[in-house]
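User: I'm new to structure prediction. If I give you an amino acid sequence, what do you actually give back? Let's try with this one:
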Amino acid sequence: MSLNTQLSNGLAALNLQVKAEQRQALIRYLELIQKWNRSFNLVANSSDQQLLNKHLLDCLAVTPYVSLNAGQRILDVGSGAGFPGIPWAILYPNTRFVLLDSNGKKTRFLFQTKTELQLANVEVENCRLEHYQSPGQIDIVTCRAFASLAETLEKARHLMTLGTSLLALKGRYPTAELAALPPDCRALSVTEIQVPGIDGERHLVEIGTSAESVPTIDPTIG
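Assistant: Good question. You get back a string of structure tokens that encode the predicted 3D arrangement of the chain. For your 222 residues, that looks like this:
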């Protein structure tokens, strides 16, 4: 079965309507991962089925539960091979995405992917999360296989203004991580996600912060 057919079946199982050019971009993206993985070790297993089910469909399966709107600025931390930022950017061309990773090889791959797929809504930054300074407001911080919820919130604290949320893609229900959240943060939702071809548990966690937890911004600056 061709990769195109497998992707079409996966999208149908998720009940996602994707334009033909977007489907081709997703396939080309997987091909780029396979090409660059030999030298850059982007993912542990780059077989067609693993890339499609474990990585791509895993990221696409959460999109019905995520509000990605035109003009929003989404920060994908520890982006690695570009999950979930690249697939989301393909599906939401009017939403802006910043792909952040401290590994230079991985950001080289991300920049090459942005260029080849002509993703004008994508920026690539080679930087650690705690050192990144955004030129504009971040609406959503997202991560997948990055760090614990508490650690991610600690490192992203300087980027989170009132209304910024953290969207974390997790495996099993993160009971311990939720219990360890800072007192000024709370889980807004924890949604179980069904991914075609994946038997294990998958969850999307949304975390919000209180007004007291966001950094104070001096309006006279800038």
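You can read the tokens as a compact description of the fold. Here is one thing that stands out. Confidence is low (pLDDT under 50) at residues 212-222.
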